[in-house]
Amino acid sequence: MKAILAVVLAVALAVTFAAVVGSREGGGTDDEPWTFAAAMSQRRSYIAAAQLDGQIYAVGGMVGETGRFLAVAQRFDPRANGWTGLPRLPEAVRAAAGAALDGTVYVIGGQAEADDGRQVYALDVETETWEERAPLPEPRFNMAAVALDGRIYAMGGFSGTKERAEVFVYDPASDSWSAGTPLPAPNHTFGAVVFRGEIWAIGGRRNDEILHDVWIYNPAADRWRPGPALPEPMELVGAAVAGDEIHAIWESTYQIYDAGTGEWRSGPRPLVTRHGLKAFAVAGSLFTIGGCTTDLHDSQVVERRRLS
Question: 113-122: per-residue pLDDT in tens?
Answer without folding.
Answer: 888 899 999 9
